[in-house]
Amino acid sequence: MPGNIVLSHPLLYEATSSNALVDFDGPDDPYRPMNWPLRKKIVTTVLYGLTTCWITFASAVYSAGIRQIAGEFRVNTETAAAGVSLIVLGFAFGPLVWAPLSEVYGRKWAVLVPYFIAACFSFGTAAAKDIQTVLITRFFTGLFGSVPVTNTGGTMADIWSPEQRGVAVVGYAVTLVGGPTLGPVVGAALTSSYLGWRWMEYLTGILMTAQFAVDVLVIDESYPPALLVKRARRMRLMGKNWALHAKHEEWDASLSELLQKYLIRPFQMLGTPICFLMSIYAAFVYGSLPFIALLIGILFAAAVSILNNRYYFRKFRANGNRAVLEARLPPMMAGTSSKNINFWPSIIGISFIGFGFTTIFQAALNYLIDTFTRFSASAIAANTFLRSILAGAFPLFIIPMYHHMGVDVKYCPQLILV
What we know:
It is a multi-pass membrane protein. The protein has helices at residues 38-61, 66-73, 77-93, 95-105, 107-126, 131-145, 147-159, 162-191, 198-218, 224-239, 255-263, 265-270, 273-285, 294-318, 343-372, 376-405, 412-417; strands at residues 21-22, 245-246. By secondary structure, the chain is mostly helical.
């Protein structure tokens, strides 16, 4: 039929030899991200950590302005609080797209392009004229901004050896859970001043845009298959040998192939016992909003996690330098709200909550990265999906629960679930 593509060529079914396959020049190739200088690895980790910090900051800073938003748009506080739930629901669904794309096109631009779009939506929230615009832009801020939450784990697997990765992930985990502890504090300062709630969103957009600019200039691509594709392309242009190619190019880049091979991967991983159990546990642990006192527990958890990393590598070396997955897990194994009781016991208790969920998070993150390595971004996306679904649901009923049940018993349902 006219218009059909005729596939006919004498060499059509002559496969290219393995000599045409472009790879790294041995384990010590400086082009390999695992061999980057230590300083470059640290800078990359810090920048990805800050990139993650500002979007998690965005999820929590809004909570300080709920009453102002409700008053300005003449809605109840439950409707205004939906802005918290919607950004977190965006966190649930965004990684299911962005994590697999990072395993196709590389980490850097799969993170930065959606992140910049999220910053634009944050400015949209700040300029909103009605509550509908606030809620819609909050959801899309989470949908696009969720990308570093999952893809940074893949970058950690790209650049850090198993021996160093545990400590690097601790630093990343602190920035991930540290953002929500700073958000309500900064938000309260802004809403109590003449600036008001809109400047919470303007500040978030400014921070994210500034971080985007720094990342574009400083961060390099770290996904080995994407780097090999780039190397093969340069070699083809330089030597005019069009048979040269990377292994990552040996697939059909059609939409159906992309959907079948990559976008369903997080759901496939969620079907594995390892990923499902880690995800459902994290979902219950993160089903409430953290506050500034959590930061103390987070810092203690970071110290314990670094110590656990030493324990892990004693097991790692004893096992012939092969991953010992269960050795990542020890940190996650391990009624003072009445108005008649001084507030300090509650604050101290919150610090232990921060300690608990941070050790759980970093242990689960290390475990998933060690287990799935190259596809760790998809595994973390599955984990983030369940975690964010519950975290997004809690703000919708936690305020009515607080008012109807009182401060003495409102945490009991969560404790029973955990």
